[in-house]
Specification:
By secondary structure, the chain is an alpha+beta fold. It contains twelve helices and nine strands. The two termini are about 30 Å apart. About 15% of the residues have low confidence.
């Protein structure tokens, strides 16, 4: 099934319905101004989600801390073990018997649900579905009914029309002063989760309440002047693959010349490719290690480093500075890749 295009032409609801109806297995990639999200499907059901802006492990550790299921020292130990084993944080926490499997699974599935739900608010962006094998997590399997998510998403979008343009699930809030008097119990609880880092979806996770009710409470607190929105930067956007594909006619004209050229350069190409692959692998590995260093810094100092120099003075595999920025409760780190140019297809993150 070739499925790609613009969300303005073919909305998320239609895409999910098609994948569910045809019981497809593969990866749906959606890219918008503020995020790039991958949804994994097995037999038409959602088996996982990855957000470039909101890393799953980042939010899991933060929520477990704030809910009292985990202490900072325990999280640091788990992150250190993750640095060595490269396993997922949830699996490590269960293996170290720090958190019950049911607790971790409930939070992770809630995060996947939130990630899918917030996509229903996207009016612009691109999508591409690739039919491919998807390996489920053996330790923490996820299988969410796509039709249920579809109905929930449409319900929330309908409710959110009442507060559309004021806040979104990605909106980060900060307090304008001390805890005010006269708040209801619901307002007091939601207000306690506002810290200048948590976005609306994280506050929903922490509160355990209904999406719309928490959002209404946040809006009420904002209109009363007790909280305000914090500016969050968009993720670095890659050009959609469709924009880079040459036409079939041009590809045909060049194919014969390409064959001849490849024969002439085959020996040099083998050596160059080996060097290229090794540097790509090295850059990817180094970035994974830096992510863990940045997470450890954040736990120790209650905020992410303002510059990458605070955790490392090293350069990427090509000897260039890393691309690094913080935004709300997350951070972005990448290498400009072999060409040294930001925002191109060979960037590594």
């Amino acid at each position: 099934m070739a499925l790609e295009g613009a969300l303005s032409d073919f909305g998320l609801a239609d895409i999910l319905q098609l994948i569910s109806f045809q019981r497809k297995t593969g990866v749906l990639t959606l890219e918008g101004k503020m995020d790039k999200v991958k949804l994994m499907f097995i037999d038409g059901n959602v088996a996982g989600a990855e957000s470039k802006r909101r890393m799953e492990d980042n939010r899991l550790g933060k929520i477990l801390l704030k809910k009292g299921h985990l202490k900072e020292g325990q999280l640091k130990a788990a992150l250190e073990e993750q640095r060595k084993s490269r396993a997922k944080l949830g699996s490590i926490l269960i293996k170290m018997e720090l958190v019950d499997k049911e607790v971790v699974n409930e939070i992770l599935q809630g995060q996947v649900t939130e990630t899918v739900i917030q996509l229903f608010g996207w009016k612009q962006g691109t999508y591409e579905f690739a039919a491919q094998a998807v390996l489920g997590d053996r330790d923490l399997p996820c299988c969410l009914d796509t039709q249920h998510l579809l109905m929930e998403g449409l319900r929330i979008v309908d409710e959110w029309t009442l507060i559309q343009g004021k806040i979104t699930l990605d909106t980060v809030f900060r307090k304008t002063g001390e805890t005010p008097a006269g708040l209801t119990n619901e307002e007091t609880e939601v207000f306690s989760f506002v810290d200048g880092e948590n976005d609306a979806s994280t506050i929903i996770d922490l509160s355990g309440q209904d999406n719309f009710e928490v959002s209404k409470t946040l809006l009420s607190l904002m209109e009363k002047g007790f909280i305000e929105t914090a500016v969050s930067a968009p993720v670095i956007k890659e050009k959609h693959a469709a924009e880079k594909k040459p036409s079939l006619i041009i590809a045909g004209l060049f194919s014969y010349a390409a064959v001849i050229l490849s024969v002439c350069l085959s020996l040099a190409g083998v050596l160059t490719q080996r060097s290229f692959d090794f540097k790509n692998f090295t850059a990817s590995r180094q970035i994974d290690e830096l992510r863990l260093k940045i997470e450890s810094f954040g736990l120790e100092h209650s905020q992410y480093p303002s510059t990458i120099d605070q955790v490392t003075e090293s350069k990427d595999a090509w000897g260039r500075p890393y691309i690094y920025r913080t935004t709300g409760d997350s951070f972005y780190i990448a290498s400009a890749g072999p060409d040294g140019v930001k925002d191109t297809q060979d960037d590594i993150y």
